[in-house]
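Appendix B, Record 12. Input sequence as logged:
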Amino acid sequence: MCKRLKKLFAIKGYPLFIFCMLLVGIGLSTTVPYLSLYLTEDMGMSKEAFGVFMAVSALSGVLVNSLIAKHSDNGMDRKWIIIVAMLSHALAYASYLVIHNFFLLLAVVRAFNEFGAAAMPQICAYAQESFTENECVEGGIF
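Logged structural output:
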């Protein structure tokens, strides 16, 4: 068991993966269950407006994530993409507390979520690259 943990932490960037996944998990688990209640009850958003808000946020995230993925596959440093994406997600979550106008909130959250959407796929791609480059694959972690 100790040898497995040592080999896992020997993988390049493994502590960064753990930290980023922890941040993503905390962010999603604290916002997603209450986001619909907050936006519809506290901000007075209608259910239709909330649906438009979520759809626009998701679709814009997919579009920008596709562009970022194309550039990262051509040699961009994934570590910096992950860091910027995580900071962007943090700013998106913080903007819910500060902004109380629907259109302004939509614009700001959409902009931050566009870049934040790249966090999870880039973490997975970076982890796969690090794992295959590491000699733990040949020695067998598990």
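The chain is about 85% helix and 0% strand.
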